[in-house]
Amino acid sequence: MPYKAPEGKGYADVAAHFRTLIKNGELAPGDSLPSVTEIRDQFGVAAKTVSRALGVLKSEGLVTSRGALGTVVAKSSLVITGADRLERMEKNGLRYAPGETSSGHRVMHRSVYDPAVCTALDLEPGDEAVIRIRVFRQDDKPTSVGVSVYPPHTVAAVPELADDVRMVKQFDKLYTERTGREVVKGQRTAHARQASQDELNALEIDAPPHSAVAVLVSTVTFHDDEQALGYWEDVYAPGSQVPMGE
Questions:
Q1: Which of 139, 158, 170, 220 is 20 to 30 A from 70, alpha carbon to alpha carbon?
Q2: Of 223, 83, 229, 87, whose CA–CA distance to 158 is shortest?
Q3: For every residue of 41-64, which 3-state class applies, written as one string?
Q4: First vs last Cα of the chain: how many Å apart?
């Protein structure tokens, strides 16, 4: 159904539409966007508005001009968070974007001492939790390390979390199906810090011993109406572009 954008904001809405398709993996690098005429007709906006929207996407490195091919999706260093992957799967069922894979899957039972994780999950230092780790890759190049931590009461409801295999369904859906409680995603936050040696190894960064390599880290905690259920952390390779939610 054609969408008529509010007057004065058409270019932003057109850009947001295609940005979302790219972020969700529905448009892959090399895919052509519709022509200016087709976009103009779809959104009911002027050609100048379409050109401005495409200019915004080009400035963000999401699309590029390819002569006779028109405007195509560019290869970019855009890396989404684990929470965004949940939303992508909810919308279109895609676990991975085009060209994206994952490796290094590990599942561990560990005592937790990290103050941020203990606070987020209401754990005492030394309490045991299940930790799941995986490395996300784009065109076989590491882009981020995903770490998820689950307290015992979450694992009791979703025992698959403790199995050293890839989950076939997201934990929040399984938890809600089995408990009847809605899983709510908390506020995502981001900060920079020095990468650990394990993170450097996972991201295949060859840095001199004892050198400081800064990485961007995003975190989010999941809850039901009574307690925290999981803590997710994504560690991004230097140079990655991470889209920030509104």
A1: 139
A2: 229
A3: HHHCCCHHHHHHHHHHHHHCCCEE
A4: 25
| 241 Cβ contact partners less than 8 Å away, ≥ 6 residues apart | 61, 76, 77, 78, 79
Nearest-angstrom CA–CA distance, 16 and 123: 40
Task: Read off the pLDDT of residues 106-161 as tens digits, 9 standing for 90 and up.
Answer: 999 999 999 999 999 999 999 999 999 999 998 889 999 999 999 999 999 999 99
Residue 123 and residue 134: Cα distance in Å, rounded? 23
Handedness of CA 16, 18, 22, 25 (dihedral sign): positive
Beta strand pairing call for 141-150 and 214-223: unpaired
The CATH number given to 97-236 is 3.40.1410.10
CATH topology of domain 10-73: Arc Repressor Mutant, subunit A (1.10.10)
Residue 79's φ and ψ, nearest 5 degrees, are: -130, 125
As given in the structure block, the two tokens for residue 103 are: 């490796």
